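In this notation, each integer encodes one residue's backbone shape. One such record reads:

___
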Amino acid sequence: MKILYGIGGGISAYKAPDLARALIKRGHEVRCVVTANGARMVAVDALRAVTRQPVALSMWAEDGSMPHIDLARWCDLLLVAPATADLLARFALGLADDLLTTLFLALEPGRRVMLAPAMNTQMWEKPVVQGHVSTLRAGKAEIIMPVTGQLACGEQGVGAMADPDAIAGACGG
């Protein structure tokens, strides 16, 4: 399966190379799209080395191509991990101001979308965030629920991104 792996700007992005490796181990072809904030949390060169593919960072291509269309058509599955509160909101509301959110809108009907949220417990439990999750589920997005664990803020609670192997297993293969 061709998996387009979107990486948001949560601290859980540091797990991205492990998740990409787990997907590849299961026989998937993986290409990564990293948001500007995601690139602050994970080394793009590490993703490039693990996937052996270029990493997409911008909607703007010097060769005149349209990465948001090309990548949306290339993939069988869009996986976003970590899916931050901001990304969940932008996906749910149809806001598209970067490559990841724009290609989400450009996905053809029937393409699988899997989102693995990760954020502080207080953020995860906010009614507005849960409303966005409900909207995305209604649009057929699959949600890989966050787990209870030690959060980056030092607190213990629900909001940690699921384990990379569990996420890869949910993708199939």
